[in-house]
């Protein structure tokens, strides 16, 4: 009986205690730390919303059309920028004309509450302003958001924005992105936003750990370098400037990783130094072609008697000649033969170089045509105009970058836009008959009267009248003289270049 009474008494006591605690909690609210923090944030957010009565500082944005009422004590404690500004200025307002309302609202909400809205539309502008106000935690957070949003459409803009708040992390991520998607940017109009160091980093990243150097790398370099040059520069000056700009970039490329099958397509890039092409096994391609010809000739030697050898060799060279420009028109052959006035040369000359067969490149031209003496050059454009030149001296491997005098040199037109008869233009004897340069194809005169560029179909031009006498009534530098041979100064394309020598 006593035990039951004690148990009942204890239960009643516990129940009374619980009721007392509940009643006291209703009278005295004791929040948890989490609840206290949440309430503090809410209260500061409320201060920002209803601060007009207690504000001591105004921030004006959007060309002063929007005003935020704020508090110096909060701004200075949260932002080093404002802390310094208040020490140096007594004004009760500040203007940020180029900042929009939502961007400033995002920043102030963070300053007052440590919260940030997910605002993709103003992400970049909020990041820039956060950096200006030296809100490091927010700046890093927003930067990571930007890094995750990089794509083909915005990466160039981010690179340019990076100049405002300098961020090595953002720049590196953007350059790596371009490197990994290089084919998307080879012709991008925004390439001008990249500087030389950035281009070097893109290329370096692209070729790291790769077994080949891709042709698209050179296309990317070409398009970037061309956008660095003023469009009103003349072609020769432009090409020289491009070579200077690209030299430090090209020097970082391991040319041994260029595939043989890509070599001929690389001839179009005028900025490539001579050694790059040679080191890239261009000679291997030419050796293969020459070897096939030699093997055919050797087979003739093995299989034939002396008379048969001579006959078959003539047939061998005749077959190549039959596919040439001269073979298509007997009148052209007779006209040129008369102009050259050297039957021995004309009757024994062979087609030693054909751009269609050997490559549209100055490197191939010089490897096959240097030191051959008398040389006849015939050029045919895609518009079916035919012109060229003749030199008794020829191009010399020892005269790289020099003019060569040749009193008997001349240039000519066989078929021209004006439908004039074939005509020979005599040399002015000014010491500039032909120009020998490994980076140039066959070039006549100092103007140049005829210039075939390193890549035959990029930068070639005609400028008749400098080293050779133009047609009657035409003057050097005039549109008529520049257009007489090919239809215009430099917008024509080459279908074929042929060189004949003994």
From TrEMBL:
Residues 324-502 form the TLDc domain. SUPFAM superfamilies: POZ domain. Pfam families: BACK (PF07707), BTB (PF00651), TLD (PF07534). InterPro entries: BACK, BTB-POZ/Galectin-3-binding, BTB/POZ_dom, SKP1/BTB/POZ_sf, TLDc_dom. The keyword GTP-binding does not apply. Residues 275-302 form a coiled coil. Residues 1-21 are annotated as: Disordered. Residues 55-120 form the BTB domain. Keywords: Coiled coil. Residues 1-18 have a biased composition (Low complexity). This is Btb/poz domain-containing protein. It comes from Anaeramoeba ignava (Anaerobic marine amoeba).
């Amino acid at each position: 009986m006593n035990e039951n009474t004690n148990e009942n008494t204890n239960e009643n006591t516990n129940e009374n205690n619980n009721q007392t605690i509940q009643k006291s909690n209703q009278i005295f609210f004791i929040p948890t730390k989490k609840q206290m923090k949440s309430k503090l944030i809410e209260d500061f957010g409320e201060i920002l919303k209803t601060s007009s009565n207690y504000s001591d500082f105004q921030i004006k944005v959007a060309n002063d059309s929007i005003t935020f009422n704020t508090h110096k004590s909060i701004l200075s404690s949260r932002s080093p920028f404002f802390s310094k500004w208040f020490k140096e200025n007594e004004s009760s307002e500040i203007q940020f004309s180029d900042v929009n309302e939502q961007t400033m609202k995002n920043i102030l909400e963070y300053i007052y509450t440590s919260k940030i809205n997910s605002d993709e539309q103003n992400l970049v502008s909020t990041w820039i302003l956060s950096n200006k106000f030296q809100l490091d935690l927010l700046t890093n957070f927003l930067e990571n958001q930007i890094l995750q949003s990089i794509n083909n459409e915005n990466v160039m803009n981010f690179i340019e924005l990076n100049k405002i708040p300098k961020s090595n992390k953002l720049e590196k991520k953007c350059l790596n992105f371009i490197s990994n998607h290089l084919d998307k940017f080879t012709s991008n109009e925004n390439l001008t936003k990249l500087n030389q160091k950035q281009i070097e980093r893109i290329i370096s990243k692209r070729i790291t750990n790769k077994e080949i150097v891709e042709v698209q790398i050179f296309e990317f370099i070409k398009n970037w370098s061309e956008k660095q040059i003023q469009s009103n520069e003349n072609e020769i000056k432009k090409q020289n400037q491009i070579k200077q700009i690209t030299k430090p970039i090209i020097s970082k490329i391991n040319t041994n990783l260029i595939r043989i099958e890509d070599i001929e397509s690389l001839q179009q890039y005028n900025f490539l130094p001579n050694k790059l092409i040679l080191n890239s096994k261009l000679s291997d391609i030419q050796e293969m072609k020459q070897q096939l010809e030699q093997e055919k000739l050797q087979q003739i030697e093995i299989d034939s008697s002396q008379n048969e050898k001579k006959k078959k060799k003539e047939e061998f060279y005749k077959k190549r000649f039959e596919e040439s420009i001269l073979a298509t028109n007997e009148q052209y052959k007779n006209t040129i033969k008369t102009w050259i006035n050297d039957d021995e040369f004309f009757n024994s000359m062979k087609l030693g170089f054909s751009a269609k067969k050997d490559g549209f490149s100055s490197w191939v031209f010089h490897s096959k045509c240097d030191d051959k003496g008398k040389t006849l050059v015939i050029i045919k454009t895609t518009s079916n105009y035919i012109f060229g030149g003749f030199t008794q001296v020829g191009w010399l491997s020892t005269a790289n970058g020099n003019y060569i005098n040749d009193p008997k040199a001349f240039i000519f037109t066989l078929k021209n836009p004006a439908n004039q008869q074939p005509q020979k233009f005599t040399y002015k004897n000014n010491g500039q008959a032909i120009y020998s340069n490994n980076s140039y194809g066959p070039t006549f005169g100092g103007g140049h009267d005829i210039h075939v560029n390193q890549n035959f179909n990029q930068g070639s031009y005609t400028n008749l009248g400098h080293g050779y006498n133009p047609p009657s009534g035409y003057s050097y530098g005039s549109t008529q003289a520049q257009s007489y041979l090919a239809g215009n100064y430099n917008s024509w394309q080459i279908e074929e270049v042929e060189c004949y020598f003994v």
